[in-house]
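Hi,

I'm pasting everything inline rather than attaching a file, because the server keeps stripping attachments. The sequence lines come first, and each chain or strand is labelled.
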Amino acid sequence: MTRSLGAPEGTARDGSGRSPLKKVLVRGADVLRGHRDGLAPAAGMVVLGIGVLTMPAWLPATGFLTLTDGVLAGIYTLLGIGMVLLLGYTGQLALTVNASYGIGAYATAILTVDDRIDPWLAMLVGIVVNIVVALALAFPLFRLQGHFLAVATLGVALMGYTVFEAAPVTGGSNGINGIPTLSIGSFHFVSDMAWTYLVWVIALAALLACRNLVTSHFGRAMLAVSGSEAAAESSGARPFWIKTLVFVVAAALSSVAGSLYASYAGFVSSSSFDLTLTLTLLVMVVVGGLRSLWALPFGVLGILALSAALQTYGPSVIPATGSDIPIVGYGVILILFLLVVPGGLASAGRWCAGQAGRLVARVAATPATQPAGGLYGTASSESRP
Amino acid sequence: MGEFVVFLFAGLTVGAINALTGLGLLIIYNVTGVINFAQGDFVMLGAMGTILFAGPNGGPHRLPLAVAVIVTVAGVAAIGGLVERAVIHPRRGKGPILLLMITVGLSLVIEGVVLIVTSSQTYGLRNFSAGGPLTVFGGEVSRQSLWVYGVTALVLIALYLFFSHTRSGKAFRACEINPLAARLVGIRPSRYWTYAFALAAGVSALAGAAIAPVTTATYNMGLPLALDGFVAWVLGGLVSPVGVVLGGIGLGVAQGMLDGYLPTALLPYSGAFPFLVMVVVLVARPGGLVQLLPNRRV
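And the predicted assembly:
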């Protein structure tokens, strides 16, 4: 967000000599218009934190969502982070998320089902396996660019799904039953509320860590790769390693999500790891905003809510469509967002905040003794360059 | 021998459909550079439309089959052109990945609309010609399979004649080879984006009509077909029509043989075979398998 560099013209920044209320208003206007970036992540964290803490209250109140959706939203957020990093920041449409998610889930399922090893250790094993697989795949796959990468990774994803379905050790579509839940010390995660908090603590920590990643030197290199690999390389960045590292991070996060899912659900079967998952995630990520980590949970929750609402109320409007009905909404939403709001909820939110900030700045700059549109009014209502 | 022939014919039927889907992908890719994720859904629309107009199996016959097929192919071609105008055209030049994602959305929308209309039911279609299977070289082949081969051959010949002997076909190729030069001689490449989608949708719809009696039709039959079409298209080196047809048929036959002869323990994995081939070819030989042939001026 280079906008914050330097003081842009037309800000109502100089509020000296005015009443404290006006100072607050001027400050607020600048924050809303994105001139003070430092506060935005803190605000995002606070809003998300409050939203998650109050989930047990507001999720059931919607009438069609339950706390299970709260847990799933956290898991999807973990999966979505990888896609935002890969697709949004690095410009690589890699569709292997269902495979890495599956590897994580099956690692937990297979290793813990007869209490063989501790679930946390199994999660770690899943991460390690995923990192090894991701590294092995990155070498051939990242020789491909653009949509060829998408086609090749789609092939890998479908091979992964076939293996999950066919390998004797995974139980195929019958799945694996009786996976023990996670526990810390003597506390066992059993209730949906405990699970919601556990999953979201992990998801928010991952969001925060990845936000630090994308605002770092490395993050700028990721953006450079998404702009032009040749240009990035000529500036000293190494596109192959950047893409590989982001791919590995995404695989590790998906692995954690998969392990959490297996421990939460107590049951995994191959149908959880098909292409529908990847497409659903793509819709969620586009709705949130391809280049926004903070907006991702909103996209995830929005699509989960849409899906749940369609499944609850859809059959009464459009009879006999069964449980496949959410895809009707997914396609329309995906196309609408890509055509109308390509920046997703993040850019829509930023635009709204900017408008609000402009309004506040105008109010703040209007001297009480003068009518609106006086000297200060015209000066501050100039549009930003 | 008889067993082998049966597997061969089964593979050829799948291969012919792969080839037609792959050709649709190729037509769109060559002109627009877009990978159309919704290609399989055009096949599904072709099958569903023909069933709708001709009357599903078990119900009363409506239109004669030939009329139903023609109406459907024209209708799906129109749909293909319209969706290009509506959702692809406004985002031309915004990069292949965005356009690919839009076609993913398109695929979901088409499936969703058909889901609402058909209520996720499976429909069958009567065979194009009555009569039991024929015996060839000691193996049986259904009459509908022969129709599939015939339709494929017909489409290939028609496309060949169109692209090499007609003015608009040559204009298509001009847009592929050099859009800027095409504009200089009065061809509007942007308009050929729409035509390419319409043509590809029409070809796929015809394939859908031909396989409907064999495979039956459901709203979500498109994605697996599109995926096999991708493999055929990659095998053909992305730009060569002959390569795509050979790739599609080769893939179908190989899959048929695998399904027939693979040991039982490995059989569940045979579904991964096309994708393994696709990934290996994309990574190791991006020019497709046609590069192996001595003279690839196609």
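Residues 2-220 of chain B form one domain.

If the labels don't parse on your end, tell me and I'll reformat.
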